Automatic annotation (TrEMBL):
Signal peptide: none annotated. SMART domains: CoA_trans (SM00882). One of its GO terms (molecular function) is CoA-transferase activity. NCBIfam families: pcaJ_scoB_fam. The lineage of its organism: Bacteria, Pseudomonadati, Bacteroidota, Flavobacteriia, Flavobacteriales. Keywords: Transferase. It holds the Pfam family CoA_trans. InterPro entries: 3-oxoacid_CoA-transf_B, CoA_trans_fam_I, NagB/RpiA_transferase-like. This is Succinyl-CoA--3-ketoacid-CoA transferase. Belongs to the 3-oxoacid CoA-transferase subunit B family. SUPFAM superfamilies: NagB/RpiA/CoA transferase-like. The keyword Protein biosynthesis does not apply. The keyword Transferase applies.
Length: 217
């Protein structure tokens, strides 16, 4: 199974030159560490930063430079800071080409639940609702199952939904899947993971056609 860093590394392969990309909190923030050589992308952080770089080395952190998850980050040359209204104008105006989000659950229809577990304390929805409503291309980075082994790729979400029919692709610690009209379509397997492993870990409809390649990094 993949580590969180390897999930981020695989998602980084989806980046295209010239993309403006928003990274959600959690695993998605790691994507900035794995931008492929020869690719130039601009990372946007909803708390008001354009030109976000990778995480700083230990001892080089600037406590005033943080991402939406309050983690210290770096700023690349040409990076800029702005207020929240400008940040959300970029998002709502659909100037962001790709959004990478974490999730607690994703349904086979592409619904996403990623902001609240009833009865538990949460920081708030943040910009999740705006991101899923405005982005045309959403990739989810998540673990395939919860700590008890229950699937997080479901027929229907059981937690409060953030967005409906918006997720296009999912990268988990087991596989890469596309969300289609027919359900979750298996595209790639993590090294050492079998098709049967993915079937057992997926509650929603899983489509397996032909030989499934192993992920390349």
């Amino acid at each position: 199974m993949l580590t969180k860093e390897q999930i981020a590394q695989r998602i980084a392969k989806e980046l295209k030159n010239g993309y403006y990309v928003n990274l959600g909190i959690g695993i998605p923030t790691l994507v900035a560490n794995y931008v492929p050589e020869g690719i130039e992308v601009v990372f946007q952080s909803e708390n008001g930063m354009l030109g976000m770089g990778p995480f700083p080395y230990e001892g080089e952190e600037d406590p005033d430079v943080i991402n939406a998850g309050k983690q210290t980050v770096t700023v690349l040359p040409g990076g800029v800071f702005f207020d929240s209204s400008t940040s959300f104008s970029m998002i709502r105006g659909r100037h962001v080409h790709l959004t990478v989000l974490g999730a607690m659950e994703v349904s086979e229809k592409g619904d996403i639940a990623n902001w609240k577990i009833p009865g538990k304390m949460v920081k708030g929805m943040g910009g999740a609702m705006d991101l899923v409503a405005s982005a045309e291309n959403i990739i989810v980075a998540m673990m395939h199952t919860d700590k008890k082994g229950n699937s997080k790729l479901l027929k229907e979400c059981t937690l409060p939904i953030t967005g409906v029919r918006c997720v296009k692709k999912i990268v988990t610690n087991l596989a890469v899947l596309d969300v289609t009209e027919r359900g979750f379509e298996l595209r790639e397997l993590a090294p050492g993971v079998s098709v049967d492993d993915v079937k057992k870990a997926t509650e929603g409809t899983l489509i397996v056609e032909g030989d499934i390649p192993v992920m390349q990094f």
